[in-house]
């Protein structure tokens, strides 16, 4: 991941998290979601998804991405459900801080910056996770 031509974060095997913060999200949910992400069993063992980033010694790349909060409004996206930047930044930083309490490598993007993100997705898993709330899909 690069911001202004400078690498800000990279991981090897692990999870890329596009983190969007909604107006209704709370600190408690940010913590719950971070714990859920690091323990999410999506890596294969014996042909089944049995292992988490913790189990494989993997990394977590946390990318702040308010656009995942967008909802269709005619032919445009409405970002009204997204939290205001000052709240979103606090919950993003709390999420990252909580991930770092676990023995996994954590790398980050840059909040409110234009980022160049290169992902290599190996495997069948792309998921929308919430900390117990309806993602509104």
Q: What is the strand arrangement across the widest sheet?
A: 2-1-10
What's the story with the biggest beta sheet? 3 strands, antiparallel
Q: Quickly count the helices.
A: 3
CATH topology: D-tyrosyl-trna(Tyr) Deacylase, Chain: A
The helix-strand sequence is EEEHEEHEEEHEE
Mean pLDDT: 88
Give the total of beta strands.
10
Radius of gyration (CA) equals 15 Å
- The H-level CATH homologous superfamily, spelled out, is D-tyrosyl-tRNA(Tyr) deacylase
CATH class: Alpha Beta
* Sequence stretches where pLDDT stays below 50 over 5 or more residues: 133-137
**Helix content class:** 10-25%
Residue share in β-strands? 25-35%
Tell me the count of domains.
Answer: 1
Molecular shape: globular
Task: Supply the helix-strand structural class.
Answer: alpha/beta
Span of the ends, CA to CA: 28 Å
Q: What is the CATH-assigned architecture?
A: 3-Layer(bba) Sandwich
Notes on the protein architecture:
With 137 residues, the protein is of the alpha/beta class. The chain has one domain (2-115): D-tyrosyl-tRNA(Tyr) deacylase (D-tyrosyl-trna(Tyr) Deacylase, Chain: A). 23% of the residues lie in helices and 26% in strands. It contains three helices and ten strands, in the order βββαββαβββαββ. The chain has helices at 27-39, 53-56, 85-99; strands at residues 2-3, 6-7, 14-19, 43-45, 48-51, 59-64, 71-73, 76-78, 105-108, 115-116. It has a three-stranded antiparallel beta sheet with strand order 2-1-10, with no helix packed on it. A three-stranded parallel beta sheet has the order 3-6-9. A hairpin with a 2-residue loop joins strand 4 and strand 5. Helix 1 packs parallel to helix 3 (85-99). The longest helix has 15 residues, at 85-99. It is globular. The two termini are 28 Å apart. 25% of the residues are buried. Residues 133-137 have low confidence and may be disordered.
């Amino acid at each position: 991941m690069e911001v202004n031509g400078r690498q800000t974060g990279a991981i090897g095997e692990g999870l890329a998290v596009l983190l969007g913060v909604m107006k209704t999200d709370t600190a408690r949910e940010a913590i719950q979601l971070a714990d859920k992400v690091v323990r999410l069993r999506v890596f294969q063992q014996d042909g089944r998804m049995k292992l988490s980033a913790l189990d494989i010694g993997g990394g977590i790349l946390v990318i702040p991405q308010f656009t995942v909060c967008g909802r269709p409004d005619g032919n445009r996206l409405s970002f009204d459900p997204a939290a205001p930047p000052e709240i979103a930044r606090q919950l993003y930083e709390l999420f990252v801080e909580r991930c770092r309490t676990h023995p996994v490598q954590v790398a980050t993007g840059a909040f409110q910056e234009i980022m160049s993100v290169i992902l290599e997705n190996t495997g069948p898993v792309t998921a929308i996770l919430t900390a117990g709330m309806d993602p509104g899909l």
